[in-house]
Amino acid sequence: MNLNDIDYLVAVAEQRHVGRAAEALGLTQPALTRAIARLEAQAGMPLFERHPKGVMLTTAGEAFLHRAQRIRIEYDDALREMHQMKTGEMGILRIGYSPSLDDRLLMSVMRRMLLERPAARIHLTEKLMQYLLDMLLDGQLDLVVAPAPVSPPAQVEVLPLYQDVLHVIADLEHPLQRRRDLQMADLAAQPWLLPAPHTPLRTALNTLVLQAGLPELVVRVEVTVISLNNVGLLRGTRMLGIGSHSSLEPLRREGIGALPISLPVLRRQIALLLRKDAYQSPLSQRFRQLLLTKRGSTRAA
Q: Is 90 exceeded by the pLDDT of residue 192?
């Protein structure tokens, strides 16, 4: 197998059709068919199931493709390392982080890095967790700081940093602000501002509601990312939302505060995520060291 074979496998798996895959690759269909047949001969078993409308990966094909993609990423890592050594670009660090993060720890470490390494360049990517994981696995990011996934991919190493708490928030004049015996039923009866249904936070809240035997939450405003700007929509309404602990002070100045209730699903582990056995530049290694050291001092405090 060569590196082109990995591209062939990926194209056919994505297109689910040899003809369309060949067109996307700039090959003739017979040439791509022969390449797939050669790979199947090397593997000793079928990698695709043929159907009248196209092809689909077999179980063996999925396993084979997974391994092949890891080879491609490792190869790209090696080329990137050689390129950085040649061009002197060893000082580029690509970090992803979650927008719901209390980023004070992350930013303090980055400030330390910038002072320590005057030639360092940092590329920051702020996205939702599922996108950060995809970018990490694809080799587009070196490190990710985000809530630890419940079931992390086998290729991802998870290094715990600290425990974080989110809060249910509402307008300071909301009737629930004056209650001290709040239950999940009280929250479920209110309209909400929440992220999309597929996000871990929304999934956890929906599960909690279902377990309590309550009707599904009414989401009046759905946002891609919860931010200080969009939670301002809670002001003067009966909507509830979710805010990080670090945002409570600025939110209160805007007339929004935490409700007197604690939900287990709003406690989460923040972690440093990286690909197992991936190339880590000296800059990446130093960032990891500083972050884990800072984590230790934060816990001790």
A: yes
